């Protein structure tokens, strides 16, 4: 699991991925081996930041799992996302970061945390709305702690509310021990039918 990358062979990641409801995603959008949807390339993640690059994104692994019920960052409006009998699912991405994403030496540029959130929250909006390429209308990021490099982070995204073409999504960038480094909330707009 986790593409067998050595950076993911640590206890907190093994424990995270061993949960019974964790479902790996094979070649999701943005993965170097994925086939892009029409009009969507995700070349920033699949080529420019090049998974398995020693300098930027050294490895990435996407999976889904149920949103933890006791998640303190889930807002009270999350009840609107599904029927009471269905537990919501979150999109997750493990990312091994190299020093090529640094702002300050040994620390990822703050904008990179925003980029990771935008990527995972966009995927969440696409999955939940069924839209091929929803566009970010607005995103707020609150920075809680620096992201050390090299290192591995978990980026999580879940739906807060879906209304017509609008999807409100929330997420976090976390490290070992579920330490929250950044939180984000975004509004994505699905394209009108027949447009990308």
Automatic annotation (TrEMBL):
Q: A Pfam family name for this chain?
A: 4HBT
Which parts of the sequence are annotated with region: Disordered? 20-44
Residue span, Thioesterase domain: 106-174
The coiled-coil segments of this chain are none
Regions of biased composition (Polar residues) lie at 34-44
Q: Where is the signal peptide?
A: none
* Name of this chain's protein: Thioesterase domain-containing protein
Provide the organism lineage as a comma list. Eukaryota, Fungi, Dikarya, Ascomycota, Pezizomycotina
């Amino acid at each position: 699991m986790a593409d067998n990358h050595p950076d993911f062979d640590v206890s907190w990641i093994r424990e995270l991925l061993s949960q019974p409801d964790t479902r790996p995603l094979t070649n999701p959008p943005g993965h170097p081996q994925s086939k892009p949807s029409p009009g969507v390339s995700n070349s920033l993640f699949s080529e420019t930041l090049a998974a398995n690059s020693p300098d930027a994104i050294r490895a990435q692994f996407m999976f889904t799992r149920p949103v933890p019920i006791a998640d303190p960052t889930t807002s009270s409006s999350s009840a609107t996302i599904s029927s009471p009998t269905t537990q919501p699912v979150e999109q997750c991405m493990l990312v091994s970061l190299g020093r090529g994403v640094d702002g300050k030496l040994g620390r990822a540029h703050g904008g990179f945390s925003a980029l990771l959130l935008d990527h995972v929250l966009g995927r969440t909006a696409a999955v939940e709305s069924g839209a091929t390429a929803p566009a970010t209308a607005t995103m707020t990021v609150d920075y809680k702690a620096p992201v050390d490099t090299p290192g591995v982070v978990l980026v999580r995204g879940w739906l807060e509310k879906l209304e017509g073409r609008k999807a409100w999504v929330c997420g976090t960038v976390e490290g070992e021990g579920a330490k929250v480094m950044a939180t984000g909330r975004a509004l994505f707009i699905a394209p009108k039918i027949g447009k990308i």
